[in-house]
Write a structure and sequence with these properties.
The structure is a homodimer of 341-residue chains. Chain A has twelve helices and twelve strands. With 341 residues, the first copy, chain A, is α/β, with parallel strands linked by helices. Chain A is elongated. The interface between A and B is large, with 64 and 64 residues. Strand 2 of chain A pairs antiparallel with strand 2 of chain B, so a sheet runs across the interface.
Chain lengths: 341, 341
């Protein structure tokens, strides 16, 4: 489909009637070449459609200036904001980003990781869909000293850096907050508990119950996929409970908002009868009425920090093994959905 | 940083005590090699960390199996949903995607496009931040017959395919709908009018006013950046107008929702005093009260169609020049924010 002929420095040299060495030095902005010549070479290179021969250079340097990105889902508020942060830093330092999503399939996740390896990325940025039972799928990266940085959902492998928030503490704080507002039966709605962020949030919820003198009760733990639809279903489920909760803490805002909306439409008074809290500070949390108490997730910053750590490692400024975990600041934002004064 | 030694087929051959040719054929699943041998070779290749030498292959075939993606902003509902659709198709056909965002900077957009060219993408998927005055920045792609597909925001160059929705018609329909609900002073809030999607929506709005016997009035056109903040400001602006609008059509849901919320908090009755409509069917449109009338934007499908067209072109199944524009189905969803019955 493409034209066969690739423009080389020899073609440019011929057209300008100068040596190939001069063209090469000009393109590299070598100071031994006059500004006028460099400008002339660049203009001709552009006109002729010359492309830096990054493949040949890659073969030589073994570097591709490419970072691989593996996430569960590209179109979520948190993930797309993290990616925007990653791109910000990567483009500043001249790195490309190759993206992939697993869509909840462990098989696709593994195949994405393999694809990144075959694409010879210089480093990998990963948010795993589920907790990896072992790190075998990253062995080839570790064996070749290709750095791997986990974000959002950390992993416990000592060869990698984690950039995360303190999910346990945030969940603890938000549950304590609901208890302080007078809630005695606090329900927790969350995702797959084999995923460490949900496991950590659930542990924080349970610890806060205990420290508030409340007992954990199985029928107050609801596990679903945290989607819009799951939120509506959770609301309908609560409406049918004989012994209803008087507080709900959902592991994301989207699910919390649609659950709250379903209850409200059925006449439940929020926060008087049921107080609500979510997680992420997603735009819906500021639109739902009453506005949703939530955790301010520093998504954009997380993307920037993860990318910077990886690039610093690649440039030799630091190594990802020095610190095993970077915990970003995050905190509760208390809003009308939980304030009973 | 990386280990120097790259595993070759010769290393695998030596370990298995077979010929390099047999290794090579096994890795390519050549039928002349027994299944047992092929399995043995694949297992050893995996164990030794062998990587398909895609660079060398790239140099030979001039293909990278990589698609470049240029968008204004990665973290918007529409764009992240489109990207999810693109990834879906690309990964199915074995293509990598390199992403970039221009963040409203024409300079960064041009540099992103150049970077994609230097990365030797097989094809380019583009949503321009602003209407390009000319297509010069894509000349190098056209010169090399590298296909370019524009999505969301089309372009008029005959060498490219556009995958878009009918922004003019949607804006026309939604404005007519507001007029039919009794609105006589309909305000339009929109983005930079030099961007074709906003220009088209504005033309549709004006045509609908005319066909409804309403006159266009300069003070009913508000141009901002359609963010959350701009929505709040628009609401405050409306509150201060002596001759207020009785209908608002905003070019995205996010801005519409925050504008509506600001007015509601000030005691304005929606839709009775001011009817509202947005665009995109963003999750906030289903959370805001009253729920927002909007246009159902087929984001995920747009990503899938754009990627499929590009890949079909690359595989020779079709060319992007055959059809200049593919218009996806989109339609109004009328909700409580505009229904006055």
């Amino acid at each position: 489909m493409k034209e066969d002929k690739e423009i080389t420095i020899y073609d440019i040299a011929r057209r300008l009637n100068i040596s190939a060495a001069t063209v090469s030095r000009s393109l590299k902005e070598h100071q031994s070449i006059s500004t006028a010549t460099r400008k002339k070479v660049h203009a001709m290179a552009k006109e002729m459609g010359y492309r830096t021969n990054s493949f040949a250079r890659n073969l030589r340097t073994q570097q591709t200036n490419t970072l691989g990105l593996v996430v569960p889902r590209l179109n979520s508020y948190v993930v797309s904001s993290i990616i925007a942060g990653i791109e910000n830093i990567a483009s500043e330092y001249g790195y490309n980003i190759i993206i992939s999503q697993s869509l909840g399939s462990a098989k696709k996740e593994t195949s994405n990781i393999n694809m990144m390896f075959d694409s010879r990325v210089d480093g990998l940025l990963v948010s795993l869909a589920y907790n990896a039972k072992n790190m075998d799928k990253f062995k080839m990266f570790f064996d070749k000293n290709i750095p791997v940085v986990f974000f959002d959902r950390g992993c416990e492998d000592p060869r990698s850096l984690n950039v995360v928030i303190d999910n346990y503490q945030n969940a603890y704080d938000i549950t304590r907050h609901l208890a302080e507002q007078g809630c005695r039966r606090i329900m927790h709605i969350t995702g797959d508990l084999s995923t460490n962020i949900y496991e950590d949030r659930c542990r924080g919820y349970k610890a806060a119950l205990q420290d508030s003198g409340l007992s954990f009760n199985d029928d107050l733990l609801l596990v679903n996929d945290l989607t819009e639809k799951a939120g509506v279903e959770a609301g309908n489920h609560i409406l049918q409970m004989t012994n209803k909760p008087d507080g709900v803490f959902a592991a994301n805002d989207n699910c919390a908002a649609y659950c709250l909306q379903t209850l409200k439409e059925a006449g439940v008074k929020i926060p008087k009868e049921i107080a609500f809290a979510g997680f992420n500070n997603d735009p819906v949390s500021r639109i739902i009425e009453p506005n949703l108490t939530t955790v301010n997730y520093p998504c954009h910053e997380m993307g920037e920090v993860a990318a910077k750590c990886l690039i610093d490692h690649l440039s030799g400024t630091r190594t990802v093994h020095n610190a095993n975990t970077i915990i970003l600041r995050s905190e509760i934002i208390a809003r009308a959905s939980s304030l009973r004064n």
